[in-house]
């Protein structure tokens, strides 16, 4: 068995500088080719990464060049340094593959980062065992440890191999789905909602196919899943009716486009912008920063006000009361001019003022105007219009009355002595 001390002794040989120079040349050549090919690619690329060396292509090219150099030079003299670099580069390629795919597919997932770190530790441990020559012995020990699953017994080595194979296939499926979404769907589908549902469907389909291939590769009989599929269908039918209804409603909303990401909607008195449409629920964020999670079934079966579906323009009204001695035509003209001078008020249709009521305290007018950006809120534009109305009425000397009440005080006769 080769020990670490023996490995270090093998490194001390006359051709070590040549090996080091060859290894440096392989790494430099891999970096140069990766940089030349990927200098125009985005930082989200799995092949090139953010700094070229953290991409998958650099690790693969370095592995190919180093292994080829080891095969070519071992005829002339031993190449322990190059042979030690091969498992290191194999582990690096695996880590770069997992890390870059997870970064692209799950950019903010803490669980993905945990899986990435766990695989990195396992990969570097395997590389160290490979270098010192203990990896075959560890594999034999794992092969001798058997786990019982009912009447079947399987070695721990087979479990590890199956896990690695299934994980590699699933990560490859995630990579393909991300590439399809980025390259094909973003160019072919311009609508954000349709693109999202297409991306989710492609990812789910590829993950299912990848899982089936992985299970078949490790020797699992796929016909055994027919019973599980039937049981799952029964469970959905009886125990998960609401969940299944919300999922189906989510796809209906995305396909019908009755609601779209970015629309301003009002649900049960809660008004906000549709931020995201998940397969189970829809996320609505109000202008105050509050978020409402609405089940998709509710959006299908109940009345929802979509303020942006057909026409983004929204009618806003505000009221004002003036004295009975005021000129009605002058008041209407001042109100219309005040609304028209506000930046957010649209010119078509134009603002209008109407005498709505002969109130107890004065003439009650309603000022009606339209805005085209309801997602920015109505309170701000209503306040701006009210300020302009107040200035215009005060400038014209028009009285803005306030409620007056007459209190009658009656003398109560003193009680008889």
Commentary on this structure:
- Helices cover 56% and strands 14% of the residues.
- A hairpin with a 5-residue loop joins strand 5 and strand 6 (291-295).
- With 417 residues, it is an alpha+beta fold.
- The chain starts with a helix and ends in a 22-residue tail after the last helix.
- Helix 7 runs antiparallel to helix 8 (192-217) and helix 12 (328-340) packs across helix 13.
- The longest helix has 33 residues, at 156-188.
- The protein is elongated and about 125 Å long.
- The strands form three sheets. A five-stranded antiparallel sheet has the order 6-5-4-3-7. It has a three-stranded antiparallel sheet with strand order 8-10-9, covered by helices on one side. Strands 1-2 form a two-stranded antiparallel sheet.
